[in-house]
Request: fold
Amino acid sequence: MKSKSVICLMAFIFVFIIACAGTSEQSGKRQLSDEDLSLNPNEPWTGKWLVNVSEYQDLGDFVLILKQYGNEIKSMDGSDENLKGKVVGNQLKGSFVDSNHNLLHRIDVKMSEDLATFEGKDVVQSVDTSIIRSVRQE
Reply:
């Protein structure tokens, strides 16, 4: 009788692990719906952004899916880069980090009045400065 209980418990644990495998919660990010990404003047940084960094860093275009929580910004599932930052007014100061949260480079950007674009500086190790531009994607 005891062995049946152990087998049932092991089966439950196995099913639970399989069900949780691959969920976005494991990566610390969650998937945002189209509604979550729609323009909200109270969270103007939330959305899907097509980003371009000037030719000096050879990054090309990439996608950022950002979520604004008060004055904090985090990239979400579907982003090509991992960004964390803080908002003051129409300005975002943040950092691109690797999967171990090591600093790759910093940004200092300003949102346009129409909330459709942002632009500013991208700095790598306080040496190379590039222009970063982004356009909101619908």
About this structure: The first helix runs from residue 2 to 20. The two ends are 59 Å apart (CA to CA).
